[in-house]
Amino acid sequence: MGIRLGLPGAAAESEQTRANAEAGFAISSKLEQGRLLSSMAATATNSSSHYITGHVEAAGTANFAKRIGSAAGPGHFRTLRAGGSIGDLIVSSLGIGTYMGPDSDSVDREYMESITRALSMGMNVIDCAANYRNMRSELLIGQVLPMCIKQGIINRNEVVVCSKAGYLAFDYREDIDPYTYIDETYIKTELFKREEFVGGCHCLSPAYLKNQVELSRRNMGLETIDIYYIHNPETQLSAVPRSTVLSRIKGAIGAMEECCSEGKIAMYGIATWNGFRVNASNKQHLPLEEILSYAKDIGGENHHFKVVQAPYNSFLHQAATEPSQPVRGKRMPLLHAAHHLGLSVMTSATINQGNLAKNLNPDVRNKSPELGEQRTDAQAAIQFARTTPGIVTSLLGMRRVMHVEENGSLIRVCGTHASIGLPFRHMALICLIFQLIIGVTKSLLRTTAPMQESGLPASASFTTPCFASLNASQSREGKSETPSDSAD
């Protein structure tokens, strides 16, 4: 998450100033720091002489897949439908996320080693955000990527580098009061208004998002960021009317299209936690088809909205099972909706921030015998996610090389499964049956006595070709759906 601040009113600001003075803070010095930072952030440098040129390309990703060759099992490489001048990309079924970990040099070094190893093993997707570890994650990518290119591990056009904006990103290198930072860097420079800054952490102002694109480019040293996500826009639905939030999302999409036309990003998407997977009755629901229409209104049929991101694992499985998205008048799960709308899906929380790396539900574990008897719970959980039809890349937060080695060993394993690697057109029917079974069972559960007489347990669970006893998995794992902005 980004830093969370309650923006004070005038009286509170005066109180803050007095508190700072009593604590011996040199306010004028901090204001000067703020002005310097403001000029740096608001008018981010136009010089790109130190940036790595180019962006991901279809030919580059095809070359990467060819170079990995037989070290990757069938189904590890998939197609991300970018189209246009970029072409359809060949991307790995596993990608490395950079959310977790404290702000420290030692963690930076761990991530740099892990990214290097991941690229050499056959992963060509790196996921980040401006606010991850107070910009340190973007900055370390800016260090490790040129090193890997220089060493011949990767070429720039072979790797998909993703970042996000929405949450306020604070620069760990700046010793400045947060309130001063916001006022001087963003409000006084008119990058956003106070009322556009929601919950002390989130903003969708077009000027702010364009500024964050510049910040991310500078942090990572990239002329062009391959995918830039609008980050968890549903965050604002808890405090702002739905019509206002959708209007802000449309404005954000306009800003992203401008960045694409300027060559600063190659394409964009929307990364969510709840937005695209929860039922339409949920306050945080976002309508994907409607949002896509904004991109078409602004960018035409050649718009650059190509990818969505949402959590998916054996516990948070709604992206494949909850008919949350209306498409052409029919409700369907996110994975199916994205397929029909021509969008690719990358999923986060593949092992639910480590919660599925131990004590995994046996039904889920048993769905991956191809991994062998020595498979770990983490590997089984990852295999469950990466073999679900409709998912292009499953993202994993891997800051340690040992985790890259363990999880990356799946690259050699078949990425489709006999029981769940079904043609996509059959998935909608399977999920419909799944929903009907749940509905019937809920009705039966209202009459417990007849159920007990018939021998049907009150905690009945179900197995489909796609989802192994998910009801049982939820009850045994007992994990809560805690909102997060993590790639895993």
Automatic annotation (TrEMBL):
Residues in NADP-dependent oxidoreductase domain copies: 94-407
Gene3D superfamilies: NADP-dependent oxidoreductase domain (3.20.20.100)
Domain of life the protein comes from: Eukaryota
Annotated TM spans: none
Pfam families registered for this protein in UniProt: Aldo_ket_red (PF00248)
CDD domains registered for this protein in UniProt: AKR_unchar
Name of the featured protein: NADP-dependent oxidoreductase domain-containing protein
Organism, scientific name: Adiantum capillus-veneris (Maidenhair fern)
Organism lineage string: Eukaryota, Viridiplantae, Streptophyta, Embryophyta, Tracheophyta
